[in-house]
């Protein structure tokens, strides 16, 4: 696994995969190929809004140039500030890495306890947001071998899975996430119909 920060590890792994797959490979982001995703990441880190014109301008530079820019790392502030870097970029790169991996037939990566710990931390935010969107029903997140998290009313929908998979589901990657959904039928239907994407 190495000792590099999560955001740098995920960045490098994603860059390697983008280089391997090329600019036209699919992603889980609707309407985006790998070149679109790389352009989005470059624009995001340089605080540009990502308009259609800006995306087109970045894509026109070519995937190798976008990958080279991503490999240099983000600007120092705020992206490299200790404590903030993992929260701001760790999950961004994890989720987009999975967007590319899973759209191209690569499954879940086991034995990533640091990613699971970070994902579990962030399920607090994602779970609250999802629970608000399915009111009056509640939501429970249940990782294997751990204490569940509950949001809203008891007896609602129950989402089972590894923390990274729960986060992928809650961030809109439902079909790709390896989870199991149980609980009250109306609450389950509400969750399945809710827009929880980020």
TrEMBL record:
A Pfam family that the UniProt record links to this protein: MDMPI_N
Entry-linked InterPro entries: DinB/YfiT-like, Maleyloyr_isom, MDMPI_metal-binding
Molecular function GO terms recorded: metal ion binding
Annotated ranges, domain Mycothiol-dependent maleylpyruvate isomerase metal-binding: 10-58
Superkingdom assignment: Bacteria
Protein name from the UniProt record: TIGR03085 family protein
Species of the source: Glycomyces algeriensis
């Amino acid at each position: 696994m190495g000792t590099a920060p999560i955001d740098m590890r995920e960045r490098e792994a994603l860059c390697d995969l983008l280089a391997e797959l090329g600019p036209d490979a699919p992603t889980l982001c609707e309407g985006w190929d790998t070149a679109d995703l790389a352009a989005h990441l470059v624009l995001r880190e340089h605080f540009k809004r990502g308009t259609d014109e800006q995306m087109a301008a970045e894509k026109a530079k070519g995937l190798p140039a976008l990958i080279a820019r991503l490999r240099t790392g983000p600007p120092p502030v705020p992206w490299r500030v200790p404590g903030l870097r993992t929260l701001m970029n760790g999950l961004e790169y994890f989720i987009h890495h999975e967007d590319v991996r899973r759209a191209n037939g690569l499954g879940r990566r086991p034995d990533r306890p640091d990613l699971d710990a970070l994902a579990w931390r962030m399920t607090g935010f994602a779970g609250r947001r999802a629970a608000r969107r399915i009111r009056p029903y509640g939501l429970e997140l249940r990782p294997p071998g751990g204490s569940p998290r509950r949001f809203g009313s008891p007896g609602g929908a129950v989402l089972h899975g590894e923390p990274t998979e729960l986060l992928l589901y809650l961030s809109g990657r439902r079909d790709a996430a390896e989870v199991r959904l149980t609980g009250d039928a109306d609450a389950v239907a509400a969750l399945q119909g809710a827009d929880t994407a980020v």
